[in-house]
Design a protein that fits this description.
This protein has about 250 residues and is an alpha/beta fold. Helices cover about 40% and strands about 20% of the residues. The protein contains eight helices and 13 strands. The strands form three sheets. Strands 1-7-8-9-10 form a five-stranded mixed β-sheet, covered by helices on one side. Strands 3-2-4-5-6 form a five-stranded parallel β-sheet, sandwiched between helices. Strand 12 and strand 13 form a beta hairpin. It is elongated, with a radius of gyration of 24 Å.
């Protein structure tokens, strides 16, 4: 299950044994929103790549335990979709060729500026095809859990029965927590993309959805944190996190 929050960051595995370069690059990447795991040996880097989902590998060649070229080859064999950028002091043409032939996508010679590294990353990530859509996982906001694949809605530990259009309206909003969703988008996704009639039916369905969830919250044996359906006049709706208890 995923809990809503910040959008997923690009996951970077950084394999570098130099502490000065490591700290500089790690801090720079984190400040630009990347999720960084820094490992200092090739063996530990390969183990981490096997353990965690990784989008990008930044790989030094001069590692203390194994040559980075061998690490690049193994990474490419085991993780064919990962983006590999070699960062090294080896600047001869043959070194670049060997690195790229080993499976690297790019080759950056030390010393390099952080701005150039970030630009290279952005360029490669723009060109990569989007990952296939994962099946809908249950989404939890406060004490409300929505399982879109199973078409189930639970408030705390209790099932909430919703009509089909109420559930579909809720499903659209939980896919975009904290985002403004226009009336036109909601009508197209929940009813029909060619709907040209009045949108009053959206307001009626929203009122009914709110009422059912409020009724379920009132019937709960203990206080529950219910997300807020915010009306955006002239635009649409937004699903916001629960309001903090009074006095907090």
């Amino acid at each position: 299950m995923r809990t809503t929050g910040a959008k997923d960051a690009v996951s970077v595995l950084f394999i570098e044994d130099d502490d000065v370069i490591g700290r500089h690059v790690e801090a720079g990447l984190r400040s630009h929103g990347y999720a960084v795991t820094w490992m200092r040996t090739g063996g530990s880097g390969l183990a981490e790549a096997a353990r965690l989902p990784i989008d990008v590998v930044l790989l030094d060649l001069g590692l203390p335990d194994v040559d980075g070229i061998d690490v690049a080859r193994q990474l490419r064999d085991e993780h064919p979709d990962v983006l590999i950028l070699i960062l090294t002091a080896r600047s001869e043409e043959i070194d670049v060729i060997v690195g790229l032939d080993a499976g690297a996508d790019d080759y950056l010679v030390k010393p390099f500026s952080l701005s150039v590294l970030l630009a290279r990353l952005r360029a490669h990530l723009r060109r990569r095809p989007p990952a296939p859509a994962a099946p809908d996982e249950p989404v939890r906001i406060g004490d409300l859990t929505v399982d879109i694949a199973a078409r189930r809605c639970r408030l705390a530990d209790r099932e909430v029965e919703l009509r089909p259009k109420e559930f579909e309206l809720l499903a659209v909003l939980v896919r975009h927590p904290g985002e403004a969703v226009s009336r036109e988008s909601l009508m197209a996704e929940v009813w029909d993309e060619n709907w040209f009639g009045p949108t009053k039916t959206l307001d009626v369905t929203m009122s009914s959805l709110r009422r059912r969830l409020q009724t379920a919250a009132s019937a709960a044996p203990a206080s529950v944190a219910l997300p807020v359906f915010t009306t955006l006049r002239g635009h649409g709706y937004r699903l916001d996190p629960p309001m903090p208890p009074e006095g907090n």
